[in-house]
Amino acid sequence: MNTSQAAPAALKILVAGGFGVGKTTLVGAVSEVAPLHTEEYMTRASVGVDDLAGVGEKETTTVALDFGRITINSDLVVYLFGTPGQERFWFMWNDLVHGALGGVVIADTRRLDSSFASIDFFESRRIPFVVAINCFHGRNTRTADEIRTALDLDPYVPLLIGDVRERSYGKETLLALVDHLDRLNAPAA
Questions:
Q1: Where are the beta strands (DSSP E) in 18-101?
Q2: Which residues pair with 104 in a beta bridge?
Q3: Which residues of the chain fall short of a pLDDT of 50?
Q4: Helices marked H in 36-133 — which ranges?
Q5: Does residue 55 lie within any of the structural domains?
Q6: 20 occurs within a structural domain
Q7: Residue 110: what pLDDT?
Q8: Which of these, 9, 26, 71, 172, is most buried using a 10 Å CB contact count?
Q9: Is 86 inside a domain boundary?
Q10: Can you give the pLDDT at residue 83?
């Protein structure tokens, strides 16, 4: 009697964004397992290297990746890979993106410029992505149209606004990516 089952299909999603925008938080909010974090305490060595403008209360930072998992059903598992945000770790993104179906760019309206590199990264590799605005403590200082213009987003790129600490917003963001991928892959009418 053969009791072995086929392994579930695995989908990979990359979560990117600037330093301190909430990548680790999003992965932790939606992962069904305790996420793997490579957080380290920031030390004096990061003074003058990491820009703490707008994130002055930040004490730790991702130095390699974050990893989480969501089981959709017995046939499908989604793996989330969160990138480190500091420029000195961007070289790792090329390895982390290998095999990714799509991406989530997390942005902070207080520092939208920190999202440009992530958007450029996905666009230059033709990897579909959505943009998730993280409203820290429920604050958002810009409209969706202002954000879209500031980030120079194509009109078809989904833009969501919410708080990445909330599991429901994380799920909504991931579902928006799946819908976006589905639309992009639908046959032309």
A1: 36-41, 60-73, 76-82
A2: 15, 130
A3: none
A4: 93-96, 116-124
A5: no
A6: yes
A7: 84
A8: 26
A9: yes
A10: 87
Asked if residue 79 lies in contact with residue 68, where contact means CB atoms within 8 angstroms, the answer is yes
**pLDDT in the model for residue 61:** 56
Amino acid identity, residue 88? R
With CA atoms as reference, report the closest residue to 17 among 103, 78, 96.
Answer: 103
Strand pairing of 36-41 and 9-17?
Answer: unpaired
Give the pLDDT score at 75.
87
Tokens of 50: 């990491």
pLDDT of the residue at 35: 67
Phi first, then psi, for residue 106 (nearest 5°) are -95, 135
- CATH number of the domain bearing residue 99: 3.40.50.300
| pTM (whole model) above 0.70 | yes
**Residue span of the structural domain in which 43 resides:** 7-47+61-183
Whether 36 maps to a domain, the answer reads yes
Q: Which residues pair with 66 in a beta bridge?
A: 37, 82
Residue pointed to by tokens 């009109």: 155
How many other C-beta atoms lie within 10 A of the C-beta of residue 140?
Answer: 17
Report the domain count for the chain: 1
Amino acid 185: pLDDT: 86
Q: Please, is 180 exposed, middle or buried when counting C-beta atoms within 10 Å of its C-beta (0-12, 13-18, 19+)?
A: middle
What single-letter amino acid sits at 31?
A: S
